Amino acid sequence: MKKLIIFLAVCCSALFTACEKDGDEIFVSGLNSSTLLTSESDIVLSQETKDAPMLALSWNESELSISSAVVSIPDDIPSVAIEVSAAEDFKTYQTIKPESNIYSFTGGELNTMAKNFAYTPDVSIPMYFRVNLAYGDNTDPYYSNVIAVNITSYTIDMSKAFVLDADKVETGFVLYAPDSDGEYSGFIGTTAWSNWFLKEGDGSLWGNEGADGKEFLMSSDESSMWNFWYPGFGGCYYTTASTLSKEWTATYIPNLTVSGDVSAEMTFVKSEVKWYVSVSTAKDNAVVKVSCSDAKLYNFSTATNDDAAISKEIGFIADANGGLTFDMLAASAGDITFGTAGDYTLTFYLSDPLNLHYEITAGATEEVKPLSGYLYLSGVDDGISGSWTFDNYLRLLSEEDSTFAGVINVNSLWGYNMSLEKDNWNDVYKMGDTEGTLKFQGANNITAPDPGLYLIQADLKNLTYSHTEVTSLSYGGFNDDWSLVEMTSEEVDGVYSGSVTINVASEYGAKLYINGGWDYFYGGEGGNLSLGADGITDDASIATGTYDLVANIKNQTYVFLGDEVYITGLNDVWDFTSVVLTKASAGVYTGTASISADSPYGMAIHLDQSWNRYYGGSFDSMSYLGANMTEVQSLANGTYNVIVDFIHNTCTFEVQ
User: Fold this and answer.
1) What distance in Å separates the CA atoms of residue 28 and residue 384, rounded to the nearest whole number?
2) Which of 60, 165, 323, 357 could form a cystine bridge with 319, CB 3.0-4.6 A?
3) Where is the SusE outer membrane protein domain (predicted)?
């Protein structure tokens, strides 16, 4: 068997946790070829399955050993790569670096590889897979067996490109290239400085060229690209993106003016990319035009400099069938005719670049924007995340009182802001004249407390806020016993566990109290916590006995757990005996499961045998009473060690 010789004088400090002396030779051995398994042998792809897991590969891992007892094997040994080829001899291939010994391909990934391999759409053609394992980049590899999977690909629509958010998740907005030539355009509703990416129909991802001063240059190099970002005005933008010239532009439309027999300003609804206005016409068949005379074009020459932005005009042209087109000239605006004198609402729908259209409806429309269910705290954890994000938020307590609250892990370097709208950097609440007060679009960031876990409360009606450090969580009220029992703080911030014995349903339900006092408490129902809510009454619906109560006051969830949990739906078997996991520690359950057949409806994790208490969602984010977990459908046949972790809220399948 081949061995890897590591010369510690050169690399022990980078690769190993300890070494005896410079120059020692350490031998790593035990690497063998792996057995590669697949979940499918024939796959028919379609546009509808582009985001669905369609093929899973798994392989066993070698048992490596090292010749020294005082050093350890680096995490990146062995080096593992999946190689995919159109030919069985692998003269050319595509390489994928997996993070574990299971890898799942989506339909879109497979179809893009088929396109790159020049496969004929709608024809079943074999695609070849193998796993390459090596001690390092310059050592001989160990190859697994080769697996052939017949792939029937589909024709990729290159007329649409999908707008992704900063996390590369589809937003629902698209840009359109009518000739499928990479020249995309469309209207987008966005916040100031909003970050985004663009994904073409073949999966190609585009972002900004990763260098200062090149704000409107495009790049498809995912290793170096930055996200695109809009200028410092939120609202409506006419956006173009050219994959040929590798430039994009953003034309800001601050308003749309109605002129003619009626004069008015239209209102923009960002989430729907629509403009609307309610008007009263004094005569029959009143005629108006819609235009913008002070649009601003941002491109490579202007960057996001408002003073350098190029002045533009826009005129909308309406046809008799409700269709809309536009021209970069206000004078081009066409006539729009109302009916008999009265009240009307005129609406422009611009979200679908293939169907720009307008509607005239009778009667006035007053659109009332609801108060957001969340208050986002940008900058509250930049000492942890390294940047300002909208990932942390308070939840709405009372819409009438405009109050919000939530538990946040605070580590702020420069203070933070509050916003009712995600990714809106302009319409923010900052600190008022003194700490504890707020001011809309104030001058100074809210002063953050020392790093730690805090209950943060905000009152937007009275413009106040408060920070209360969270040091403990206790429960009280079970069996009508209101003495407080402190819970155990788990390794995940905001997660606590405690053993609860239920003998009888409590009259008022139980509550969770912050810091061992009565001032701040959580009640709730259905697995969800809410600050100041009525008591938790699960003790009236579950059997008497002893449970682990796991509460996450950051995510505002709770669960009662017994000694076992049950996986149903695996191999399409729906009972409580096929896969039983037992308690390993508070909130953590382990066991084994064998996959031998399809799981067409996914799987669920049941907390008891009542069918009423279960978790669905996803392997990475389980949710109480959520939809069935469908990732199981992509796992290859075999035996797995299963870990269900209610502390981290995850479900893990590891190949034995």
Assistant:
1) 36
2) 323
3) 21-132
| H or E, element range at 382 | helix 382-385
pLDDT at 5: 35
- Decide: 251 and 327 in contact? Cβ < 8 Å: no
Contact 78, 656 (CB under 8 A): no
Cα 525 to Cα 103: distance, rounded to the nearest angstrom: 37
Which numeric CATH code is attached to 564-655? 2.60.40
- Please list the residues that pair with 452 across neighbouring strands: 410
Instruction: Please give the span between the terminal C-alpha atoms of the chain, in angstroms, as a whole number.
Output: 23
Tell me which amino acid residue 538 is. D
Whether 374-469 and 564-655 share one fold: the answer is yes
- From residue 210, alpha-carbon distances to 1, 225, 229, 595, 615 in Å are 45, 5, 12, 44, 42
Architecture per CATH, 28-153: Sandwich (2.60)
Around Cβ 40, how many Cβ atoms within 10 Å? 17
Nearest to 470 by CA among 523, 389, 409: 409
- Asked if residue 26 has pLDDT above 60, the reply is no
Span 497-521, mean pLDDT? Answer: 94
Cα separation, 397 vs 315, in Å, equals 44
- pLDDT, tens digit, for every residue of 55-96? 988 887 755 455 455 555 455 567 788 999 999 999 999 999
Tell the CATH topology of 374-469. Immunoglobulin-like (2.60.40)
Rounded to whole angstroms, what are the CA distances from 420 to 184, 220, 318, 372, 621? 31, 33, 35, 6, 25
Amino acid (1-letter code) at residue 279: V
Q: Do the bridges between strand 614-617 and strand 622-624 make them parallel or antiparallel, or are there none, so unpaired?
A: antiparallel
Q: Distance between CA atoms of 472 and 515, rounded to whole angstroms?
A: 5
Stated pTM of the model: 0.59
More confident residue, 509 or 25: 509
**Over the chain, what is the mean pLDDT?**
89
Tens digit of pLDDT for each residue in 644-656? Answer: 999 999 999 999 9
The torsion of the CA quartet 612, 615, 616, 621, rounded to 10 degrees, works out to 160
Domain extent listing, the chain: 28-153, 157-370, 374-469, 473-561, 564-655
Q: What angle do CA 563, 569, 575 make, to 5 degrees?
A: 55
